[in-house]
Amino acid sequence: MTLKQTLMTLDVMDDGTVNGERVKQLFKEYAGVSVQVTVVKGDKGSTDFIKIAIPGTEGKSKGGSAPTFGIIGRLGGIGARPTRIGLVSDADGAVAAVASALKLAEMQTRGDSLKGDVIVTTHICPDAPTRPHEPVDFMDSPVDILTMNQHEIVPEMEAILSIDTTKGNRVINHKGIAISPTVKEGYILRISDDLLRIMEMTTGQLPVTFPITTQDITPYGNDLYHINSIVQPAVATDSPVVGVAITAQSAVPGCGTGASHEVDIASAVRFAVEVAKEVTNGTCEFYSKTEFERIVKLYGSMKILQTSGKA
Predict the structure, then answer these.
(1) What is the pLDDT of residues 37-71, one digit of tens each?
(2) pLDDT digits (tens, 9 = 90+) for 132-162
(3) How many CB atoms are located within 10 Å of the residue 171 CB?
């Protein structure tokens, strides 16, 4: 069950005065869980980055060898105050990430610890700016994407799910969640069969995927169109990244309020938790290592797409 953790997280975040320390308090009962809050100021305000580490029984934090899994809640801000009152649609990624950590922390107290470490990162900003985007306005952020990546991508993460509200478009016409192809070192790889299997299991429906383009996997700030920042973590790591989109049938602005659907967020949380179980247990792969080695041998490195490109 993940709806309880989703509702608890939503209740804390749907507050004009919320900050990282308030979110940190959700984990005060879990002695084994480490939570760090870092306040970062940018040109458009400040935000609180939060890093939650749930150690595994055989995780590298304890000298073990089990894989380390990363969950990133990607967003511009959880609120757009004073322009908009209340929690914005863009907050769903942060809610899902924190709720995932909360579920994993509670599981440990009930004897269900994962083998590997899980690291969850996101940021908390109730008064972020907005910016124009087609077909609907986006949330902006007090800090730039480079700063986000510096605080949200941890080198220990060996596979990453990036959860982001992805409703401001006309290419996904499904309400619920959808996953992207795997992105690694500038390559858009085929969609993981393991992730499709887990998605079928956790949603009880046929898996839903969404397209990404070469533009989407390049860094923000290069004047190219991006569907949103869902796969932006891939520009700052060599680990495989998969986007988990919380979606809608209609085009919903990221700065829209009253647009967060608890059940859809809980579905993303349930998926993330099950993927965490299998990745750290070695039963889920984001990509074929053999196939990746083959494509690099045939066509060379595509790491230039992780950079700003030619001047």
Answers:
(1) 999 998 889 999 999 999 999 999 999 999 999 99
(2) 777 767 788 999 999 999 999 999 999 999 9
(3) 11
Task: List C-alpha distances in Å: 28 to 5, 24, 102, 106, 293.
Answer: 14, 7, 11, 11, 44
Separation of alpha carbons 158 and 190, rounded Å: 18
51: which residues sit within 8 A by CB, 6+ positions away?
Answer: 34, 35, 36, 38, 119, 120, 121, 151, 154
The pLDDT, as a whole number, for residue 136 is 67
Is the torsion defined by CA of 110, 164, 12, 265 positive or negative? Answer: negative
Which sign does the torsion angle of CA 288, 293, 298, 299 carry?
A: positive
How many whole angstroms separate alpha carbon 290 and alpha carbon 295? 9
Q: With 0-12 CB in 10 A as exposed, 13-18 as middle and 19+ as buried, what is 292?
A: middle
What single-letter amino acid sits at 39? V
Asked if the bond preceding 82 is cis, omega within 30° of 0, the reply is yes
Residue 249's SS3 state is coil
pTM, whole model, 2 decimals? 0.97
- Beta-carbon neighbour count of residue 16 at 10 Å? 12
| Closest to 215 (Cα-Cα) out of 180, 188, 244, 242 | 188
List, as one string, the DSSP characters of 127-163: B--EE--SSSPEE--SS-HHHHHHHH--TT-SEEEEE
